[in-house]
Write a structure and sequence with these properties.
With about 400 residues, this protein is an alpha/beta fold. The chain has 15 helices and 13 strands.
């Protein structure tokens, strides 16, 4: 650039606030539907940058895949990551297994299961949606009838529908159906992996999707997909080249299996994910599942003692994200704004239903977080003119935690 061009630049440098000026003085306690609080080891790892193609990174990726085998409960080696949110992992799974005229049965009982359906349509699939009533879990007999009628090649489903807090608890039986009918089963486990049992191999699941920012208690932006050996054979012999270069699972093996170049990996995020997964393995899945169940059920009991109603019947209720019905005339944004501003606790609204949602994933499931969140929630409703019993609910929470 010559001196004349330097003189004629007419866009001035902006005046930008520092993060310290933007962020609240007291950090918010993140108790929504994700992201979740992260452990100190994860935060420290996220501040490190190393060569994304060196021997050190290859060793780290090797350990991530080993830990993923345990956390996904799979012996399949075909574990790959994507630099992107859980939705990018969803798209990687769908785009690599669905192409032009692939018949897909998409089991939809909320916003995120609907997203899987849309992704399958965009990939060229002939998609039939099986709509599940709000608050209901997918029914095996209804699915069987649809499989007999449609004879699809691929089934998509979420284990936990975060949007309305529904748990598709018949997933093991749905996996048996997929095996019986020769279907590829794609499961979104973004909010459930490491919070609820999921046995990929035993349940005949062909692709499991997760993000880092929920049950694993890592940062957003680095996600994983585990493919079965059966799914990988389909990917390896697909008749059409994948249009999405970045999400091509075969290209991803350059980095994830050959210590070679695909694209510049999210180094810090991968280090953070490594530490988050290491902490899961140290705790063990059995202990982690128990902790999540105890904490979530105790919180649910305490919320009902407050005098509020839970959105989904207990048999279909997701423990990972708890949905609370809003009293008539009260909006989610009002409740979420008040609890954030006055009590420094962040909870979530919803994608449609008249509810607010409290996350119970990873580091959210700690007793001190539950007590603070419950007190803030009850106080918020009282402030907004809804009479709830905060002292009784706090006692109920303590009793439930001790009893369980």
């Amino acid at each position: 650039m010559d001196s004349q061009n330097l003189k004629t630049m007419n866009i001035s440098a902006p005046q930008i606030k520092t993060l310290d000026q933007i962020l609240p003085e007291e950090p918010l306690l993140m108790m929504g539907a994700g992201p979740v609080p992260i452990p100190e080891a994860v935060a420290q790892a996220n501040g490190i940058v190393i060569n994304h193609l060196g021997d050190t990174m290859a060793q780290i990726i090797g350990q991530v895949k080993t830990m993923a085998g345990y956390i996904f409960q799979t012996a399949s080696p075909w574990i790959v990551g994507v630099a992107g949110p859980g939705s990018a992992a969803m798209e990687m799974a769908v785009a690599n297994l669905v192409w032009k005229d692939t018949k897909v049965l998409s089991i939809c009982n909320g916003f995120f299961s609907g997203r899987l359906s849309e992704m399958a349509e965009r990939a060229g699939g002939q998609v039939e949606k099986l709509m599940v009533s709000e608050g209901d879990s997918a029914n095996v007999e209804i699915i069987r009838a649809e499989l007999e009628r449609l004879k699809p090649e691929v089934i998509t489903i979420v284990q936990g529908e975060t949007s309305n807090t529904t748990h598709n608890h018949e997933l093991p039986a749905i996996g048996e159906l997929a095996k019986e009918f020769g279907c590829y089963l794609i499961v979104d486990a973004v909010c459930t992996l490491s919070t609820l049992p999921l046995h990929m191999d035993e349940w005949h699941i062909d692709a499991v999707i997760t993000g880092g920012q929920k049950g694993l208690s890592s940062i957003p932006g680095v996600s994983l997909v585990a493919f079965s050996e059966k799914a990988w054979r389909r990917i390896d012999t697909r008749p059409y080249q994948l249009p999405q270069w970045t999400l091509d699972a075969k290209l991803a093996t350059n980095f994830w299996h050959k210590a070679s170049y695909h694209y510049t990996a999210p180094v810090s995020g991968l280090l953070a994910l490594h530490e988050a997964m290491r902490l899961v393995c140290r705790e063990t899945l059995d202990e982690r599942f128990r902790r999540h169940q105890v904490c979530s059920e105790a919180l649910q009991e305490a919320i009902e003692t407050l005098g509020l109603d839970l959105y989904v019947p207990k048999v279909n209720r997701l423990n990972s994200v708890v949905g609370i019905k809003l009293p008539e005339g009260l909006e989610a944004k009002t409740v979420c704004g008040h609890i954030s501003k006055h009590y420094r606790v962040e909870i979530a609204g919803s994608f449609g239903p008249p509810i607010v949602r409290i996350g119970q994933m990873g580091e959210q499931c700690r007793a001190h977080n539950l007590f603070r969140t419950l007190h803030a929630l009850g106080s918020t409703f009282n402030d907004l003119g809804v009479d709830v019993d905060v002292p009784s609910s706090m006692a109920a929470l303590e009793n439930a935690l001790q009893r369980k």
